[in-house]
From TrEMBL:
It comes from Thermocatellispora tengchongensis. It is a single-pass membrane protein. One of its GO terms (cellular component) is TAT protein transport complex. Part of the twin-arginine translocation (Tat) system that transports large folded proteins containing a characteristic twin-arginine motif in their signal peptide across membranes. TatA could form the protein-conducting channel of the Tat system. The lineage of its organism: Bacteria, Bacillati, Actinomycetota, Actinomycetes, Streptosporangiales. Residues 43-116 are annotated as: Disordered. The Tat system comprises two distinct complexes: a TatABC complex, containing multiple copies of TatA, TatB and TatC subunits, and a separate TatA complex, containing only TatA subunits. Substrates initially bind to the TatABC complex, which probably triggers association of the separate TatA complex to form the active translocon. GO terms for biological process: protein transport by the Tat complex. This is Sec-independent protein translocase protein TatA.
Length: 116
């Protein structure tokens, strides 16, 4: 894409003023600036998360253990599951929850019929 010259920038500015109006233009620019700031911070967080994950995988023994065990460490350790296994476990949990919800709905419907 070629560089924008001063003439093109002036035309773009005139079109923006015509579209948004002179009163709404500062608010629109402010909203765009906030959106860009949020977007940049989120992408920076993603990069930081990726960097820490890579560092943790590369140096697993380098992190010191806390003196008191964290609540997550009190639970029995489960082996790492593959994404397919995690999906299967989640589907089983969802099926159980659906069955419980339908049983509760059936019990409530039966109780309402008894009242009438």
């Amino acid at each position: 894409m070629p560089n924008l010259g001063p003439t093109e920038l002036i035309i773009i500015a005139v079109i923006l003023v015509l579209l948004f109006g002179a009163r709404k233009l500062p608010d629109t620019a402010r909203a765009i600036g906030r959106s860009m700031r949020i977007f940049k911070s989120e992408t920076a967080k993603l990069r930081d998360d990726d960097d820490t994950t890579v560092q943790q995988v590369a140096q697993p023994a380098a992190t010191p253990q806390p003196a008191a065990p964290a609540p997550q460490q009190l639970a029995p350790a489960q082996p790492a599951l593959s994404p397919e296994e995690q999906a299967k476990v989640l589907e089983e949990q969802a099926a159980r929850l659906r069955a419980q919800a339908s049983a509760q709905a059936g019990a409530q419907a039966g109780a309402q019929q008894d009242k009438h």
